[in-house]
Specification:
- Pfam families: Pyridox_ox_2.
- It comes from Kitasatospora albolonga.
- This is Lpp-LpqN domain-containing protein.
- This protein has 151 residues and is mainly beta.
- It has a single domain, classed as Pnp Oxidase, Chain A.
- It is 11% helix and 42% strand.
- The protein is built from three helices and nine strands; from the N terminus they run αβββαββαββββ.
- Strands 1-2-3-8-5-4 form a six-stranded antiparallel barrel.
Length: 151
């Protein structure tokens, strides 16, 4: 039955709205999270991260999870000129990762790289995730709801 509603964005479309997310896997039998810059190309997720940590090597050939959200970017619109529609979302993708060497056009999509990572010169490493599973979660707010932190 046709509707006038705009279809909800897919997980990959939501991912395109923010530049950074968190990669999750394990290294030496311990779980870890690492921040990464991402772009979406041909239905796959390309990540750029600092090679000095070795995280890309721990992920190569393994199943990983990658997640991103707009929790810091979206804010309920209280009519005060604040930013955002108030809808918060998060997405998570699970699938195999492999080290890749992006072509110049793909590398350009990432934009400028950080200068340093933990005080070291930033040396990029790239991973590609072929997402086999995707999960989306949304939290809808209206203008009457305020976001407050407990004291």
């Amino acid at each position: 039955m046709p509707t006038d509603e705009t279809p909800a964005p897919t997980a990959l479309e939501l991912l395109r709205r923010v530049p950074y997310g968190r990669l999750a896997t394990s290294m030496r039998a311990l779980p870890f999270l690492a921040v990464a810059r991402h772009v979406v190309c041909d239905g796959r997720i390309l990540l750029r991260m600092h090679s000095g940590f070795g995280y890309h090597e721990a992920c190569d050939g393994s199943v990983v999870a990658y997640g991103a959200d707009n929790y810091n970017a979206a804010a309920p619109d209280h009519g005060d000129g604040g930013s955002g529609s108030g809808d918060l979302w998060s997405v998570q993708f699970t699938g195999p990762a492999e080290i890749v060497h992006p072509c110049p056009e793909q590398a350009e999509l990432f934009g400028a790289a950080p200068l340093r990572a933990n005080g070291e010169p930033f040396a990029p490493a790239y991973l590609r995730i072929d997402p086999h599973f995707a999960t989306e979660h949304t939290l809808d707010f209206d203008a009457s709801q305020l976001v407050r932190h407990a004291a």
